[in-house]
């Protein structure tokens, strides 16, 4: 790919259909991103080399997609749900226990594969994905205290691991990264205070109606301005734009996301920027290196199974097994780790692909657990 023009955009848009095509296969429950990653692998370094992931324009578009994806992930965290908040104490206990087990497994994997990334592996295995797991819970119509508790647990793990990732992926830069995290948190908090003040005075509602009437999309413009400002701050403070997007998503989730804004974000993110980002990520991975370093395949399997095992300890505290496995679903954190590690040359050759392999295994486990939970619910049996 010599340049980046409309022909490339047309190719990327067409390639993005791979996600919906695979996701439409009955009974398999394949997430959209799998098809997008696969087509990226085929067109990128691993496959035919049609896409050049190092092209500056391609990288900029992918970074915009990354920020938007994490923004949407943040908006999925149920911070306003009072019932979910009431389930926090028990969920926090399970998340902490999961973290302890993940830390032990991380040390073991890092020692076995001699990578020195014990802290990174621990964060990966302890993470959850609110954007992936919560919609599965909704589709299964799982209700009651167990569902509320696992929703709270997923939200806690998702938030904690996304904050921890920039600190553990490169321990030498952890102090600088910590300052960057604080800067992003301060920026997001300031925006939250402004939005709450505007909400109380009725300004936000008036702007919403005015924008809807005049078709100005003022809320979308404002959120994109804040998102790109936080992303610029993240880059200046040497923190991943992942955190900028997620922090803004949490702010919008906390003050309440208007339906119109949700539809607009869905359109620009899922319709273009998200597929483009995952295609770029697939194109940047060198899966062939897994063949050159077969032990990294075992690392990916270990990370995937380790995540399921770490979350399954919730069974010791009375959590149904199917819900425990659902909580192991990973998306944002391993994607961010592979992206940051690839761009910063922080991972060994093929290690980024191993991280993604582990994430895919957790997604497969979630699909199986979801199917079992749906079958048990249909028979009126408890989801054990």
Describe this structure in words.
- The chain is an all-alpha fold.
- It has a single domain (9-377), classed as Na+/H+ antiporter like fold.
- It has 19 helices and no strands.
- Helix 7 (118-126) packs across helix 16 (295-312).
- The longest helix has 28 residues, at 351-378.
- The radius of gyration is 20 Å and the shape is globular.
- The termini are far apart.
- It comes from Mycobacterium simiae (Mycobacterium habana).
- Keywords: Antiport, Ion transport, Membrane, Transmembrane, Transmembrane helix, Transport.
- It is a multi-pass membrane protein.
- InterPro entries: Cation/H_exchanger_TM, Na+/solute_symporter_sf.
What is the structure about, briefly put?
Residues 24-362 form the Cation/H+ exchanger transmembrane domain. Helices cover 76% and strands 0% of the residues.
């Amino acid at each position: 790919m010599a340049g980046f023009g409309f022909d490339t955009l047309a190719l990327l848009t067409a390639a993005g259909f791979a996600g919906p095509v695979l996701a439409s296969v009955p009974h398999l429950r394949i997430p959209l991103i799998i098809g997008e990653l696969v087509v990226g692998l085929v067109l990128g370094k691993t496959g035919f080399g049609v896409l050049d992931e190092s092209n500056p324009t391609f990288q900029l578009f992918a970074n915009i997609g990354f920020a938007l994806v994490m923004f949407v992930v943040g908006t999925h965290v149920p911070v306003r749900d009072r019932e979910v908040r009431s389930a926090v104490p028990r969920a926090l206990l399970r998340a902490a226990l999961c973290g302890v087990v993940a830390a032990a497994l991380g040390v073991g994997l890092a020692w076995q594969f001699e990578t020195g990334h014990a802290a990174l592996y621990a964060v990966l295995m302890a993470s959850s994905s609110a954007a992936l797991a919560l919609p599965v819970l909704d589709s299964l119509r799982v209700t009651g205290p167990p569902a509320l508790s696992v929703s709270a647990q997923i939200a806690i793990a998702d938030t904690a691991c996304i904050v921890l990732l920039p600190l553990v992926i490169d321990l030498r830069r952890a102090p600088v990264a910590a300052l960057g995290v604080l800067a992003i948190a301060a920026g997001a908090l300031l925006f939250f205070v402004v939005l709450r003040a505007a909400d109380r005075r009725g300004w936000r509602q008036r702007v919403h109606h005015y924008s809807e009437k005049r078709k100005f999309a003022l809320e979308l413009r404002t959120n994109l301005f804040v998102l790109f400002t936080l992303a610029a701050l993240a880059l200046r403070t040497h923190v991943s734009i992942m955190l900028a997007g997620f922090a803004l998503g949490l702010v919008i989730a906390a003050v309440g996301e208007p339906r119109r804004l949700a539809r607009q974000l869905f359109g620009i993110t899922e319709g273009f920027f998200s597929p483009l980002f995952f295609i770029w990520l697939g194109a940047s991975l060198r899966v062939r290196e897994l063949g050159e370093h077969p032990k990294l395949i075992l690392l990916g399997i270990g990370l995937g199974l380790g995540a399921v095992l770490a979350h399954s300890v919730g069974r010791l505290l009375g959590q149904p097994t199917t819900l425990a496995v659902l909580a192991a679903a990973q998306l944002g954190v391993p994607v961010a780790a592979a992206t940051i590690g690839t761009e910063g040359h922080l991972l060994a050759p093929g290690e980024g692909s191993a991280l993604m392999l582990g994430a895919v295994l957790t997604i497969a486990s979630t699909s199986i657990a979801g199917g079992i939970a749906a079958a048990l619910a249909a028979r009126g049996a408890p989801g054990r």
